[in-house]
Amino acid sequence: MWKTKLRKDDIEQADKLIDAIDEQMFNLLNARASLALEQLRTVAYLGPQATYTHQAALKYFSSSCKFLPTKSIREVFEKVDSDVASFVIAC
Q1: What CATH number does residue 78 fall under?
Q2: What pTM was computed for the model?
Q3: What is the mean pLDDT of each run of 10 residues along the chain (91 residues)?
Q4: Which residues does the UniProt record annotate as the domain Prephenate dehydratase (predicted)?
Q5: Can you tell me whether residue 5 is helix, strand or coil?
Q6: Radius of gyration of the chain from its Cα atoms, rounded to whole angstroms
C-alpha cells in the first residue's frame, strides 16, 4: 500500500476542481433536459382520428405532442425510421 502525505492545500484544490466539474455536468444535463422538453414530439398512430389507436395515443402521450395519423402499419414504422415521428402506436 502506498503512503503519501497530502497537503491541506492539495486537498482543497482537488475539492474545488471536483466541485467545478460537478457544476459543469449539472449545467450540461440541465440544458439537455430543457432542450428535450422544448422539442415537439410526434406520435404516429395507425388509422384516422378518433380510432382506438388515436385514443390510445392521446391517453398515453402528452397533449403537447403532435399526433400523426397513418394509413398502414408500414407507414407508421416508416415515420419512425425517417425521424418524422418519435413514437408509434399500432395496435
Answers
A1: 3.40.190.10
A2: 0.58
A3: 75 91 87 69 94 93 89 95 92 78
A4: 42-91
A5: coil
A6: 24
